[in-house]
């Protein structure tokens, strides 16, 4: 009888091996146009018109075992720059804000756990193309939902878009309405009415109505939305794209904004988030069972 009981207990202890557990990722959707996809370090040979990435990865954008990326083929793997290489495939991708964002969060909150980045940005796109039901929106939602399959929670949307809506007065004036609709549709479809959104107020535009779009961005008033000011960050020679150094700074600012949403670590969070490093806590179960066995053996003898 006692042995049977011990057998059951041991069986249970062995069934909670860490490799059987899903990895709870803190998932972020990265969407928008070129400055979210990342053009830091992309140089344009004006003679040939050929663009190439210089391959320089800033220290804060290097791979880290706690930062994963959801590929175009819907596979999680350790993230590395350029994050959008297999997503924004018609363009040359470089450094964007995503890796610096992830690094900064992990540096400032040691208990945060795994970060999972879901790149979805496509260069040159206007906000109308991101409307619910259209290709980019469906693509993003499909990726967001698929990213949850092996465990995780969508913790936020990082959005940097609008340069393409600065060319025509009408688009710029309609930007606020379209942006409001986009954000509320995303929250609806993810069934996350208070999903944290970190958006960027434009540093540059493609047309004369940049200030109109910026006013819309700075004027939006939604719960759990923060707007990061990118104006003044260094641009590359094209006058449109943030440099790698600027992207790193943007990533840090976005991380600081996100961490303001995060409630102080409590028992619920520490169960929900799990990183490679805190898996060791599972091994506490085994000493506990051993202890129980010793006590029971003692009692029965
Ligand atoms: C590269 O530079 C050429 C010449 O200035 C320009 O026509 C072209 O649009 C640029 N390409 C990109 C991708 O910026
Ligand atoms: C690339 O360009 C082709 C042709 O214009 C277009 O059909 C496709 O959607 C583009 N893909 C991306 C990822 O922008
Ligand atoms: C948005 O971009 C698409 C594709 O370039 C274009 O067909 C459409 O007219 C643009 N819409 C607006 C409102 O600017």
From TrEMBL:
Keyword field contains tRNA processing: no
Transmembrane domains' residue ranges: 283-300
InterPro entries: Carb_Esterase_6, SASA, SGNH_hydro_sf
Domain Sialate O-acetylesterase: 25-260
Keywords: Hydrolase, Membrane, Signal, Transmembrane, Transmembrane helix
GO function terms (MF aspect): hydrolase activity
Endpoints of the signal sequence: 1-18
Keyword Ion transport part of the UniProt annotation: no
Name of the molecule in the record: Carbohydrate esterase
């Amino acid at each position: 009888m006692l042995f049977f009981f011990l057998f059951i207990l041991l069986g249970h202890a062995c069934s909670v091996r860490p490799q059987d557990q899903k990895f709870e990722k803190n998932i972020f959707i990265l969407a928008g146009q070129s400055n979210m996809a990342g053009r830091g370090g992309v140089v344009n040979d004006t003679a040939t018109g050929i663009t190439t990435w210089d391959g320089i990865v800033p220290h804060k954008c290097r791979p880290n075992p706690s930062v994963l990326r959801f590929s175009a083929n819907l596979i999680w793997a350790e993230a590395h720059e350029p994050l959008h290489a297999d997503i924004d495939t018609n363009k040359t991708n470089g450094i964007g804000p995503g890796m610096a964002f992830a690094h900064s969060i992990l540096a400032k909150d040691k208990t945060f756990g795994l970060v999972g980045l879901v790149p979805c940005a496509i260069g040159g796109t206007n906000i109308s193309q991101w409307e619910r039901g259209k290709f980019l929106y469906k693509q993003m939602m499909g990726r967001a939902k698929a990213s949850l399959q092996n465990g995780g929670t969508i913790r936020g949307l990082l959005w940097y878009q609008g340069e393409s809506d600065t060319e025509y007065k009408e688009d710029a004036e309609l930007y606020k309405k379209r942006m409001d609709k986009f954000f509320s549709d995303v929250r609806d479809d993810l069934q996350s009415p208070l999903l944290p959104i970190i958006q960027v107020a434009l540093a540059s535009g493609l047309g004369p109505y940049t200030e109109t779009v910026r006013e819309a961005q700075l004027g939006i008033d939604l719960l759990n939305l923060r707007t990061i000011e990118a104006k003044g960050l260094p641009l590359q020679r094209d006058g449109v794209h943030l440099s790698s150094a600027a992207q790193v700074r943007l990533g840090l600012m976005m991380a600081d904004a996100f961490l303001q949403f995060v409630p102080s670590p409590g028992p619920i969070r520490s169960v929900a988030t799990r990183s490679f490093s805190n898996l060791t806590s599972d091994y506490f179960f085994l000493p506990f069972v051993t202890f129980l066995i010793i006590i029971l053996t003692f009692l029965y003898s």
